[in-house]
Amino acid sequence: MKILFRFIAIVSIIISLTSCKTATDKQLADNQNVHEAETLISEDVEEAEEVVEVEYDVKYVIETEHFEIKFYSLDFNEEHQLSIEKIAYSLENDYKGLAEKYKTTVDGVVKVEIHNDHDKLHIAMGYPGAPDWACGGYAGGKVLAAAPLLPTPGGIDYEGLINVPIHEYTHLLLRKINYAVPRWLNEGIAFYEAKEHSKEWVETTIQDGIVKNEIPSLEYFDTGNDFQEFAVRQGYQYMYTFVEYIVWTYGYEKLNALIADPDGFENIFGLTKDEIESNWIEYITIHYSL
Ligand SMILES: [Zn+2]
Predict the structure, then answer these.
(1) Cα 270 to middle of ligand 1, angstroms
(2) How wide is the angle at C-alpha 13 spanned by C-alphas 7 and 15, nearest 5°?
(3) 61 C-alpha to center of ligand 1: Å?
(4) 136 CA to middle of ligand 1, Å?
(5) pLDDT > 80? residue 43
(6) For residue 4, pLDDT beyond 90
């Protein structure tokens, strides 16, 4: 990758020199000399690597009413700019709805870092060496996410990556209600609100579980801090449907009560955790069967 970025830097120097060639008559007359100088410079640049080393840093900033979005990258172009503008729009667009649903907001302007490099993103997230499908996180009150143009494994596309900051912002909101909200509920809600993955991904997972008669229990998805194991257990897909079941059946008021008291099933629903689990399995069997 380093070689590629160096190559881009060299090309841009050559282009800028080339565009200068038509500036004056004198330069036209000296065209041959300029061409020779250009060749010399480009060769020099290739040998003196540190001269053209491009710094990975903030290349673009958008400030909206509730968010400050910084784009960290080696390079920057119009497509990057458009993607960051889309992130700003989607965050502001969902801000009010999320505030109404969860009856809270994050104090002050929320800082959002978009990283155009998986390794740098994972360091910012506090998970250096994390797999590349880990395309977002939150740390120090900030939202962190992969750049939408960064090829990311795990079936998430450009439009999905635009919505990842909403997923992470939702985590910040839930943490305000209950700092210790368990992963199964936390991730289910964040994915349900952001919808950064396709509904088909959820449907095929659930349909497979129904066909094999292997719908796991809620307990199975309680993987604590281990987000990789949560993903391996298909927790995102299954917990999406659990949140959908609670919202559609009981509404956001009960969901908020569950966030505040994740063990309070009987007080909140008048049913035990096992009974709610049975009803959820019945719900997905009806709604997700082929
Ligand atoms: Zn998450």
Answers:
(1) 29
(2) 100
(3) 24
(4) 7
(5) no
(6) no
- Candidates 166, 54, 173, 40; CA nearest to 116 is 54
Pairing of strands 67-73, 110-115: parallel
CATH number of 56-177: 3.30.2010
Predicted TM-score (pTM) above 0.85: no
Spacing, Cα 166 to ligand 1 middle (Å)? 10
Q: Stretch 234-261: mean pLDDT, rounded?
A: 98
Distance 188 CA to ligand 1 centre (A): 8
Average pLDDT of span 225-229: 92
Neighbours of 19 (CB within 10 A): 9
Distance of CA 285 from the midpoint of ligand 1 (Å): 25
C-beta separation of 133 from 161 below 8 A: no
Domain boundaries, the chain: 5-54, 56-177, 178-290
Token pair, residue 181, equals 């909200």
Percent of the chain with pLDDT over 90: 78
Q: How far is the CA of 137 from the centre of ligand 1 (A)?
A: 7
Mean pLDDT of 30-36: 43
> Where does 21-77 have alpha helices with state H?
25-29, 31-47
